[in-house]
């Protein structure tokens, strides 16, 4: 996943709902390693085995540690391209989520995996915007307002835009985006953690170190399953469900 980032959103009429839910974590990752995809190619890739397998692997890792897991296929939207990605929400603790993210990063040969942990008073923010506008309209507005990268999910109930705003650098622009799209949204304070490096070899070392440290102190030792035939060929879920809209 390139400079992975994802997706912000905001309220226009209502002020952002600040605060954090108890023991909640978000993970943004991609199985795609191609340099650039058009929006349409990325949308087609959401139905690929690559995407289904990424969801299945995230499911198996998370469901080994908890039963509260929601995972959906989403699009990472950048300045001039997109990529098929996944978004996971769970009740895993931060160290468990970092472990899961590192396992996914290694399995998918990614540069980055993005995590967000809601926390009252945190210096970062996660915005979520809901709009009835189409994916095309949402992507155009995001790019015009220079809010990329974001994460977008389009469905029958409308379009969702997620943005992880590190150090609150976007200011009120997510609110402006929500207003422009006629949408509603919320924000959560918290801590964002971008695991990895622009150098893929360095990312591998970071992921391996995180996995090794976790497995030295915990009973979960899932790294040995990553490239087994059962996981490599998986395309179904075990306990996870789609993120609610």
SSE topology sketch:
Blueprint: E1 25-29, H1 39-45, H2 49-63, E2 69-77, E3 82-90, H3 94-107, E4 112-118, E5 124-131, H4 135-144, E6 150-155, E7 158-165, H5 173-180, E8 184-196, H6 200-217, H7 229-232
Antiparallel strand pairs: 1-3, 1-4, 2-3, 2-6, 4-8, 5-7, 5-8, 6-7
Describe the structure.
With 245 residues, this protein is an alpha+beta fold. The chain has one domain (25-215). 31% of the residues lie in helices and 27% in strands. The chain has seven helices and eight strands. It has helices at residues 39-45, 49-63, 94-107, 135-144, 173-180, 200-217, 229-232; strands spanning 25-29, 69-77, 82-90, 112-118, 124-131, 150-155, 158-165, 184-196. Strand 6 (150-155) and strand 7 (158-165) form a beta hairpin. Residues 1-22 have low confidence and may be disordered.
Question: Hey, roughly how much beta strand do the residues contain?
Answer: 25-35%
Overall SS class: alpha+beta
Main sheet, how many strands, which sense, barrel?
Answer: 8 strands, antiparallel, barrel
How large is the radius of gyration? 17 Å
Instruction: For the record, give the distance between the C-alpha atoms at the N and C termini, rounded to a whole number.
Output: 25 Å
Number of domains: 1
Instruction: Estimate the global geometry from the Cα principal axes.
Output: globular
The tally of strands reads 8
Number of helices: 7
Low-confidence stretches: 1-22
- The amount of helix comes to 25-40%
Strand order of the biggest β-sheet: 1-3-2-6-7-5-8-4
Q: Encode the helix/strand succession as letters.
A: EHHEEHEEHEEHEHH
Give average pLDDT, whole number: 90
């Amino acid at each position: 996943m390139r400079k992975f980032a994802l997706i912000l959103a905001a309220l226009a009429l209502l002020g952002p709902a600040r605060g954090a839910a108890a023991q909640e974590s978000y993970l943004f990752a991609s199985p795609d390693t191609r340099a650039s995809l058009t929006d349409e190619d990325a949308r087609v890739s959401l139905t690929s085995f690559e995407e289904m397998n990424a969801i299945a692997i995230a499911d198996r890792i998370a469901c080994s540690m908890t039963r509260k897991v929601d995972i959906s296929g989403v699009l990472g939207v950048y300045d001039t391209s997109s990529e098929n990605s996944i978004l996971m929400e769970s009740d895993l603790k931060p160290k468990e989520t970092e472990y899961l993210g590192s396992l996914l990063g290694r399995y998918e040969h990614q540069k980055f995996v993005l995590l967000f942990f809601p926390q009252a008073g945190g210096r970062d923010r996660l915005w979520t915007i809901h709009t009835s506008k189409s994916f095309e309209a949402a992507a155009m507005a995001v790019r015009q307002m220079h809010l990329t990268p974001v994460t977008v999910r389009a469905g029958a109930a409308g379009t969702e835009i997620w943005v992880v705003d590190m150090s609150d650098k976007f200011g009120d622009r997510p609110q402006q985006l929500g207003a422009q799209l006629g949408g509603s949204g919320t924000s959560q304070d918290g801590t964002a953690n971008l695991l990895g490096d622009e150098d893929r070899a360095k990312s591998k070392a970071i992921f391996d170190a995180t996995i090794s440290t976790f497995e030295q102190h915990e009973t979960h030792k899932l790294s040995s399953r990553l490239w087994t035939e059962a996981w490599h060929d998986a395309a179904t879920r075990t306990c996870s469900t789609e993120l609610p809209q």
